[in-house]
Every structure is written in C-alpha cells, then in structure tokens.
Design goal:
Blueprint (H helix, E strand, L loop, with lengths): L5 H7 L5 H7 L8 E2 L5 E2 L7 H6 L1 E7 L9 H14 L4 E5 L4 H5 L7 E2 L2 E4 L1 H5 L5 H21 L16 E3 L9 E3 L10 E3 L1 E3 L4 H8 L3 H9 L2 E4 L5 E3 L6 H7 L7 E5 L4 E4 L14 H10 L2 E5 L4 H16 L5 E6 L1 H7 L12 H19 L5 E6 L6 H13 L3 E5 L1 H4 L5 H13 L14 H13 L3 E4 L1 H13 L5 E2 L22 E10 L4 E6 L18 E2 L5 E2 L3
Parallel strand pairs: 3-15, 3-16, 4-14, 4-15, 7-10, 16-17, 17-18, 19-21, 20-22
Antiparallel strand pairs: 1-2, 2-13, 5-6, 6-13, 8-9, 11-12, 13-14, 21-22, 23-24
Helix pairs in contact: 4-17, 7-8, 7-10, 9-10, 13-14, 14-15
Length: 558
C-alpha cells in the first residue's frame, strides 16, 4: 500500500470547529475572532503574565541541518501530541510559513505525516493575511520615503544615497535584490538604487515578533531607522509620521492565530522570520499567549541551534524574560551521515562510521545548550532508512554526555510515536529545569557580543571585519545603538560562515561583511560571508510539482 502524502493525510482529517479547540483552552466563542470554521484570532487580553511565569516552555531546535531540514516542526507538533497523550495540557506555538520556501525548495512548514497542523493548505498559503499585512506596512514606509524625497512640502531633506530601508515581497525572487526605481521622468519620483528583501527578513516582521503589546508595536515602528539627511542627521519612520498608518495595517496581524493539530490539540501560529537572516522564532505575544492558556508550550526556532536557538535564548527570551525549561535537539541519522561526509546520494544509505563522525556536530550543539544553563533531550526523528545499530549508537553516545536521546516517531504514528520523548522532556522539566542564563549582556560592546557568539557558539578562532563593517560599527556607535542585541545573518549549513565546512569545524575565521541596523526591533544584524536577505528559487522549484483541480483540491503541496 502506497504511503499517503502530507497533504492527503491532512485532507482526510475531519476538523473540529475552531470554537471547540478554543474551549480546550478555556476560551469562549465570544472571545475569538473566527476566520471561517477552522481558524481564529486570539485577543491580546487573554495574555496573563502571572501564568506565563508559572507554566512550562519547551524549545525545539536541531543539529546543523541538511538542505531539506530535519523535521523540527514535525517533532514540535508530535511532541505536543505526545504530551497530551501522557496527560499534560500542551499547546504547540509555531511560526507561519513563508511562500518563498513553500514554492521553492523546502515545501510547507505545517509539519508532516501524522504530526501536522491543519487546515494545512490555508496555513501554508495566505492563512489569515498576516504576511500580507506585514508586506504592506513595510512597503507603505517605502512609498512614504520616496514620496517625501519627491515632495516640496514637508521635505525632510533625505539623502537618497543613504536610504537603508528596502521593499519586501514574500517570494524567492533573486531578480529583485538590486533594482533601480523612479525612472521615466519627474512624475515618477527621484531615480535611485533600491532592492527587495523577502518578507520574513523585513524589520516589520522582526518588530511584530518582538512587540509586547499594540502601543509597543507602534513605538517600535516609529523607531525604524531609514537613513540620513544631506546634513547627516538620522531619519526615523516617526519623522515621516508613518507609525500610526503602519500600525493600522497591522491591527489584526498582531493577534495570534489559533488552529489545531491532527489529534485536535490547540496550535497557535504567529509571525514567521527566518533564522538564517532574521531572528527565527514566533512572536513574543504568541509564546506568552500559549503560556497563559496551557501548562506546557512547545515552540520551535529555525535551522540549527547555532541560529534559531541562539536568537531565541539571547534575544527573545532575554528581552521577554522567558525561561525555557528544556531544549529538544532534533537529530536525524541522515544528517549525521551528511556531517560524516556522506555524499548527498548516500544520505539514506546506512553507514555507522559516518554517523560516528557526524555525531561531533550534534555534540557541539549539546555543549552549546549547556552554556545557557539548560539541559537538552535529543529527539532522533525517525526515517525508514535508519538502522537499529545507528540509532543505538546515538542513544549511547548521548548517554555518555549525560543527555537522554529518544526515538521520535511522530511522522508515522502521531502522539503514539512520541510518548517516550514526551516523558523524557517532562523528566527534565520537573527534575532538572534551571534558570536561563543568556550568553551575553545586551549592554556589552558590539564587537564583544559578536565575538562571544562566534567563538562560544560557532567555535570560531577569530572574527574579521571588512572595511564596510568597520564603517557600520562607527555609525552604530554614533547613533547610540551599542546596547542592542545581535541577530547574526549566517549560513544554516555550517557552524562557520562557509557552507562547505560541515561537521564540527575548528580554527576557522568568520568575516563580518556588513552590519545592518534594526532600531525598531532593537537589534543589529551582522551579515557573515555571502548571505542574501532575498533567496532565489532552485533550478527545479517545488511549484512545478503542484496541481489544483476544478474543485479547488490541491496536490503536491507539502
């Protein structure tokens, strides 16, 4: 019998009405804003800071992944199902998928197999319009900037050569990275160079994810740094009186979205920054919402623990005073083979020696999590190509490090396949949980913060700065932004800034090419190596395998 695809499994599920899912969180129908029968917005009034601090937060991250990912979302959803199966009240809190990966290389981000959030098509496509609102708010500011340069009334004297703000679109489109705008005569504006980032890299997305309430959102939007005037004075979005209009576009997007898992447990999905070029975690508001309504909240942070988890712990948790009580490190045997130098065509070929060599990558991630004063559990996300011998090696090697490794079979079995993982997590939460210790103080010098991450987390020997990055550092100092957090933009394929250095590289140098400023989000973004904030499509994009019939039934979306 052929295996059902993710979308076929999701389409076969008869969903509960969203009011019944809200009821499981003790939220009445009158308190939710329904988007049809299976999606709803949750009002911010449901957040209770006292409960936030009492309940249990579990962070799911991973070893350094292969290009198709190792299944963090699948494990996060499966673990939530497993926790509910063993009698814990648990909610999964996730990011919203971007259309870029959906139609590009990775496919959707609603989990997989029997560990999915549904309605799967809605979540992976336009959902409740949050990304659209973020895109429009971002591009409204772009339009206001160019209009101000063109206008003779209330002109701020902005120097177009210094404008740092870019337009965004939620699609992988490399052709838009660098463009020229304002051509075609004076009626079309002042010609200048511009460019697009992908929507998850927008500072508006970062701000939405860092905001604690609507007033805080508005203030942060006003603090967006745009560029300089001709007489070298800084210009902010508030100088254009942009923050209220931008906030109006985000009035619904700030509210977290409620959906359900395949096993009819609550799921909250909100915000969607990537972890290689942005902070890689859902909104503070969504995490606090989950912790206000559930005893256990399982959340994930993008790519490997050197990216998403580092930012979750040093940026989000440090600012919002969150205290994750356990970190789940997702590992796959195929990723360990990869880090043991298996060629791509042999990722699914058993090879214990390569798994042993690749384990060094996972070992470094385990060491890193302990630096935050948190204990981890390793979830071995099961694939049919795994051998008992390879799995047992990982379990034994982790045990020698004092860490429990558990086979996670959520993709194939849902909550039934993750009960052992859930028990291991509860054991850490109830018996080993400690207080998070961020790796750096936001008030430390910028270079010190960058080098702490590079040396402690990546394992770099030294950090070098290009001339442009050195000029950027002087600008940051002049603007008084030294006490911001650090949000590294780095390849997800390696601990280093060189994607080809797999495993656990040592003795390497990372190069900071340039440093962007996100003053509204309160972090600065060192860009390492060749990172782009607008990805491109692969040679054969996922979109080519998708179809929709005359009844609107979609296939090929995964």
């Amino acid at each position: 019998m052929a295996h059902l695809s993710d979308i076929e499994i999701a389409q076969k599920k008869e969903l509960l009405h969203i009011k019944d899912i809200a009821e499981k969180l003790s939220v009445s129908e009158d308190d939710i804003e329904m988007y049809g029968k299976y999606k709803a917005k949750l009002p911010l009034s449901l957040i209770d800071d006292e409960k936030v601090n009492q309940n249990n937060l579990v962070l799911v991250t991973a070893l350094t992944p292969t290009p198709t990912g190792e299944g963090k979302t699948t494990v996060s959803i499966g673990l939530t199902e497993g926790l509910n199966k063993i009698g814990k009240q648990a909610t999964v809190v996730l990011r919203e998928p971007s259309l870029g990966p959906v139609f590009g290389i990775k496919g959707g981000a609603a989990g997989g197999g029997y560990s999915q959030v549904v309605p799967m098509e809605d979540i992976n496509l336009h959902f409740t319009g949050d990304f659209n609102a973020i895109e429009k708010a971002n591009n409204l500011l772009s339009a206001l900037i160019d209009n101000n340069i063109q206008s003779r009334i209330s002109n701020l004297n902005i120097d177009p050569r210094t404008i740092l703000w870019k337009r965004v679109i939620d699609m992988n489109d490399r052709s838009l990275r660098q463009i020229t705008i304002g051509l075609g005569g004076t009626a079309n504006g002042v010609p200048r160079e511009d460019g697009f980032n992908i929507t998850p890299a927008s500072e508006v997305m970062a701000i939405l994810c860092m905001a604690t309430n609507f007033d805080n959102l508005k203030k942060r939007l006003g603090n967006i740094f745009i560029g300089f005037t001709y007489d070298k004075k800084p210009v902010f979005a508030s100088d254009l009186k942009a923050e209220n209009a931008m906030a109006i576009l985000l009035k619904d997007a700030i509210k977290p979205n409620l959906v359900q898992t395949l096993e009819e447990n609550p799921a909250i999905i909100h915000g969607g920054p990537f972890a290689n070029i942005a902070q890689g975690t859902n909104t503070i508001i969504a995490t606090k919402m989950g912790l206000s309504l559930s005893n256990y909240v399982v959340t994930e942070a993008g790519f490997g623990a050197d990216l998403g988890a580092e930012k979750f712990l040093n940026i989000k948790s440090a600012y919002a005073k969150l205290n994750p009580k356990c970190v789940v490190l997702v590992a796959t045997i195929r990723a360990l083979r990869h880090h043991g130098k298996s060629p791509k065509e042999e990722y699914n070929t058993p090879n214990l020696e390569r798994v042993k060599e690749g384990f060094r990558n996972l070992e470094k991630h385990i060491e890193n999590i302990r630096k935050y004063n948190i204990e981890s559990v390793v979830a071995i996300n099961s694939f049919i190509s795994d051998t008992d011998e390879e799995v047992q090696f990982v379990i034994d090697a982790c045990k020698q490090l004092g860490v429990e490794a558990v086979l996670s079979e959520g993709w194939a079995k849902g909550g039934k396949g993750t009960q052992n993982l859930a028990k291991a997590v509860v054991n850490v939460v109830e018996n080993k949980a400690t207080q998070l210790k961020p790796l750096y103080d936001w008030k430390s010098p910028v270079k010190e913060k960058i080098e702490t991450i590079a040396k402690e987390i990546y394992g770099a020997e030294k950090v070098e700065y290009s001339k442009k990055a050195q000029l950027n550092l002087r600008r940051i100092d002049r603007l008084g932004f030294n006490d911001f957090a650090i949000c590294m933009a780095k390849t997800q394929k390696s601990f280093s800034d060189n994607a080809s250095l797999i495993g656990r590289p040592e003795g390497f140098t990372v190069t900071v090419r340039e440093i962007e400023i996100a003053a509204g989000a309160q972090f600065i973004i060192p860009i390492l190596g060749k990172m782009m904030r607008m990805p491109g499509l692969p040679s054969i994009p996922a979109s080519e395998g998708m179809t929709i019939d005359s009844n609107g039934v979609i296939s090929g979306l995964s």
